[in-house]
Amino acid sequence: MWRFISGRLLQAIPVILAVITVTFFLVRVAPGGPFDSEKAVIPEVKAALEKQYRLDLPLVQQYTAYLGDLAQGDFGPSFKYPGRSVNELIGAGLPVTAELGLYALLFAMLVGSLSGIIASLRPNTMQDYVPMTLAMIGICMPTFLLGPLLVLLFGIELEWLPVSGWGDIPGDKLLPSITLGSGLAAYIARLSRAGMLEVLSQDYIRTARAKGLPEWQVVGKHALRGALLPVITFLGPAFAGLLSGSFVVETIFQIPGLGRFYVQAAFNRDYTMILGTTVFLSTLIVFFNLVSDVLAAWLNPRLRTQYASKS
Amino acid sequence: MALLEVKNLAVSFVTRNGVNKAVDDISFAVESGKITAIIGESGSGKSVACYSVLGLIPMPPGRIDSGEAIFGGQDLLQCSERELRKVRGRDIAMIFQDPMTCLNPYMRIGDQMIEPLVYHRGTPKAEAMKRAIELLGEVGMREPEKTINNFPHEFSGGMRQRVMIAMALINEPKLLIADEPTTALDVTIQAQILKLIADLQKKRDIGVIFISHDLAVVADIADEIAVMQTGKIVEHGDRHAIFENAQHPYTQKLLAAIPTDTKAHSDAEPEALIKVSNLSTWFGDADDPVKAVDDVSFEIKRGEVLGLVGESGSGKSTIGRSLLRLVPITSGQVLFDGTDVTSLEGRALKDMRRRMQMIFQDPFASLNPRMTVFDTLAEPLLLHGIENRQSVAQAVLKLMDDVGLARTAVRKYPHEFSGGQRQRIAIGRALATRPEFVVADEPVSALDVTIQAQILDLMVELGREYGLTMLFVSHDLAVVKHLADRIIVLYQGKIVEEGTGESLFNAPQEPYTQQLLSAIPGRALMQ
Amino acid sequence: MSADVITDIEQAEEGTSLWQDAWVRLRKNHLAVMGLCVLVFMIIVALLTPWIAPYAYDAQDLDLGASPPSAAHWLGTDIFGRDMLTQIMFGGRISLAVGFIATAVALIIGVSYGAIAGYVGGRTDAVMMRLVDILYALPFMIFIILLMVVFGRNMLLLFLAIGAVEWLTMARIMRGQVQALRQQEFVEAAISLGLPPSTIIRRHLVPNAIGPIIVYTTLTIPGVMLLEAFLSFLGLGIQPPQTSWGLLISYGAETMEEYPWLLIFPGLALTITLFSLNFLGDGLRDALDVRGSKD
Question: I need a labelling partner for C187 at 20 to 30 A (CA). Which of A123, B243, B318, B474 fits?
Fold first, then answer.
């Protein structure tokens, strides 16, 4: 098994390297510098600033210097917020986004798989149609539409829940988490329903019934594992989706998370911030994909013995 | 007193195309201590009948129209789901055809095996495990204490079936229903499993219902036999009654379909059309290749039918495909009419293909589902310039006559035909270019027994008419013996023995050949 | 077998092809048919918009300002007094165009790439798919945002960027299909007949592989439209003076407390279109399920 994991890790490295390189050069190549839009800056001050931020060096040297910094875990200073480093800003925004993402993921997994499984047990009846229609709505309604609608309904009309902030007012974490998790929940619902239906039509389910086992054991013990495997495999890509969703949700709900910082950095041409966040987020995504792959391989006995025997 | 008595059972399926009567008023009884076989081709209702007794038919499309199934004093058909669950896995157990798909791939076999014990009798897990290990030993599993923790995919097909059997018997049921348990297995493994079932049945003195499409398979073990056709039991009796004194024409047809004769050795021209020298076809890594075909040499004389016999993994299909250059050859030489086939390319290869054709095993997969019969048969004719656009229609119609298909079906698509008809189309396609040599790769294995006989007769007839040289590949020795002038026995990529049908059967030299021969089901019938 | 001895192919009864079977099955799926009709309607409206829109695209009425639905303005007006119905119609043109064109780009690239990899197999296939794997692992969302920020207001770039994300899965599906089909016996039969590879691909592989491709394409379009809307919402996609549903929704979100109709109507338009595409895609998937056509 370790061979499998280390193999995947090795594959991940060129990916991350590619990300760093492409982002770096992309950002530098862009028209407009970080200081152009600011109030008129005296040329000498501008030159000094550029020297401080190493903008006067040839591009390739900037690149290698950056790599060096990265190896030490230093993302560099922020262009936009003088005096604060990217590390600091990431450190401030990460916990918030992580918490938001976690709640959204939990919501999505629980609500999604439960509704999908329930729907699959009585296909083509109301028990199936209702959750699946809701799931379809979840898929077709983008986060940036759902969010404002929920805010409109629960926040403004009914005034049940707060509509902005994170951790300031009790209950203000509810709407954003649900908004972020809904799209994923809908997808998981459909995925688990399809997976369940597929598994329930397998011969080994008939064997389980022929042994006289009660239906809850047939479904819970025999069917569930095979049915949820596609959901687990999906977690890696799901994470990436959650991340991009967080950009929107944090903007709508005014949440000081990494996503919002990222969008702002993009607008402000804050090179180091963009670079730092991109690298950081990409590494996280690659890592999550790895975890998801490993989990899926481990849960599938055929793959597990195959990889175990090779190591 | 019968263990299970079924009276006037009728089961239908309600689909959007209408109501299909799968089982139409059948009655039979199963005695304890006897093996009752239910024989029928696909669609006969044999499986549906037994599944519905246990309530394993999905009831929205399925519907029990009438009948009783008396077991242990109660009518199973009237029982609720809860009551039926008490019977399943405890008093009546089932084993199924394909042990790979019928065992949960995500659970260790030990966990799966102890379920009936734990659920029905409340046996504690440790004790149940011990019992499971005992049973695994009884069904012939080596080192059961270790293998009990393995997953299904870690076993071979025969081993998995043994696991299924052990799992079914763990609760000491009174009745065992075996639904085609050996159909998916190789012939030697099949013989082992049949013997195992017969032995276990005798030891425990239980009743067994053995469902199969193959009369020969049950010839050796069944006490009572019921023959089903389109939902009805057409004949019913003990083994002597059926095998020696069959009354119903359908039973007679089934019996006649079992090839029992040996082809008399005919005088073919001594000239060899195909000469294979040291053929090797390896797959996979260079350091650890799978040697599908390992240094094989043989000849096929013009006009001869050479039978190639082996079990799965023997390499017989790979040889056929190697001769036709459908798989890359690793080393060796194949001479076709003097030309080395292995070195041909381009135009020369295309011309050679015209003279060598193949008939494939699976009639469902060997025809392009999006082409009509006309398209499929015309393609080779147009490709090789044998016919042009004007003349091809007539040629196609004539081909259809030759293979016994109605001309009116010429514009239909494969899915609109039965298995046997599709195989006729495949034969037509292979013969369209009037090849000299045809490889038939298990051409009838996927067909029902009565259809098999028809297609085999067709092939013999066409072989004569077209003057074909044939390589007939099969796992079924009985069929090969009936058709082939000479036979080659293959085992793990190597030739084990070679000879005529007579010499092989009367005086087999090699142990593997002897093993194969003794595994042929229904040897009693051949005597 | 009984043979009415016909002498001409034409005299034989026509068979029912698998496509016809699938079409019949699709027709029975009411949701899918509804989706198809709605989709066709949307497309026709989008195509005819320049001629049938009630107002000029940029006709403002600053005195009127934002007003709720009325007889003159069926869907209300925005803060500049522009007719919402017109805005939505023009926005739809852009959104649908992006959806279809970007998907077409992804389709062409992905299908060719996947077909080649699947057919040739061996090392070429391994290398090609390794590339896909690496690209797949890249967090594209982030890159697209970066691209749009960096190179800004360029519709063409938007199409390409979105297409670049989607072609990967298309390639994977096509390769999977081609690989599976290549093992099928009727392809082996075609080879043994002596057919050249081009004919085999054209007549035997492609017709049997496009089923899932059609389904996936239909389901990709809504994804692409969502992506465009998402980018426009963040201010990174379509820029004024052009408009798209995503942009309209983002404006509507800003002022939703006072003028909820500015959010609801564009939202409805987008959601309904996505619904239709998804229902149609699901219906196509069920109808084209080849397993059903085998005995």
Answer: B474
pLDDT digits (tens, 9 = 90+) for A100-113: 888 999 999 999 99
Question: Is 80 exceeded by the pLDDT of residue C141?
Answer: no
**Contact between C280 and C84 (Cβ < 8 Å):** no
Query: Which neighbouring-strand residues pair with B178?
Result: B95, B210
Q: What is the pLDDT confidence band of residue A49, given thresholds at 50, 70 and 90? A: low
Flag whether residue C250 sits within 8 Å of chain A, measured between CB atoms. Answer: yes
To the nearest whole angstrom, how far is the Cα of A286 from the nearest Cα of chain C? 6
Q: Which of B90, B96, B106 to mutate to test the interface with A (most CBs of A within 10 A)?
A: B106
pTM of the model: 0.82
Query: pLDDT above 90 covers what percent of chain B?
Result: 57
- Are A23 and C274 a contacting pair at CB < 8 A? no
Please identify among residues 207-246 of chain C the ones whose CB lies closer than 8 Å to any CB of chain A: 222, 226, 229-230, 233-236, 246
Q: What is the largest CA-CA distance in chain B?
A: 78
Contacts of B416 in chain C (CB under 8 A): 15-16
The model's pLDDT over C53-91, given as tens digits with 9 standing for 90+, comes to: 888 877 888 877 788 888 888 888 888 888 889 889 999
Provide, as residue numbers in chain B, all residues whose Cβ is less than 8 Å from the Cβ of A210. Answer: 54, 56, 88-89, 93-94, 96
First to last CA, chain C: 22
Total beta-carbon pairs less than 8 A apart between chain B and chain C: 119
**DSSP assignment letter at C10:** G
What distances in angstroms separate CA B180 from CA A92, B194, B420, C204, one per listed residue?
66, 11, 21, 35
For A211-268, what is the HEC assignment?
Answer: CCCCHHHHHHHHHHHHHHHHHHHHHHHHHHHHHHHHHHHHHHCCCCCHHHHHHHHHHH
A303 touches chain B (CB under 8 A): no
Distance CA B288, CA C257 (A): 71
- Mode of pairing for the β-strands spanning B339-340 and B331-336: antiparallel
CB contact under 8 A, C138 and A19: yes
Closest residue in B to A306 (Cα–Cα): B154
Contact (CB<8Å) A202/B167: no
pLDDT higher than threshold 90 for residue A5: no
Three-state SS for B10-28 is EEEEEECCEEEEEEEEEEE
Q: Of A152-156, B38-42, C149-153, which gets the smallest average pLDDT?
A: C149-153
Q: What percent of chain A has pLDDT over 70?
A: 84
Please name the chains neighbouring A, where neighbouring means 3+ C-beta pairs under 8 angstroms.
B, C
By C-alpha distance, which of B461, B136, B490, B440 is closest to B293?
Answer: B490
Contacts of C256 in chain A (CB under 8 A): 148, 151-152
Which CA distances in Å does C224 have to A188, B255, B499, C75? Answer: 20, 63, 67, 26
Tens digits of residue pLDDT in B307-335: 999 988 888 999 999 999 998 899 999 99
Specify the pLDDT at position B256: 85
Residues of C in Cβ contact (< 8 Å) with B401: 3
Per-residue pLDDT of C177-231, as tens digits, reads: 888 888 889 999 999 999 998 888 888 988 888 888 888 888 889 888 888 888 8
Specify the pLDDT at position B308.
94
| pLDDT > 90: percent of chain A | 15
Q: C-alpha angle A300/A303/A306, rounded to 5°?
A: 145
DSSP B492-526: TTEEEEEEEHHHHHHS--SHHHHHHHHHSTTHHHH
Phi, psi of C257 (to 5 degrees): -70, -45
Number of A/B CB contacts below 8 angstroms equals 74
State the DSSP code for B457: H
Task: Please check the confidence at residue B391 and state whether its pLDDT lies above 60.
Answer: yes
- Which residue of chain B comes nearest to C209, CA vs CA? B370
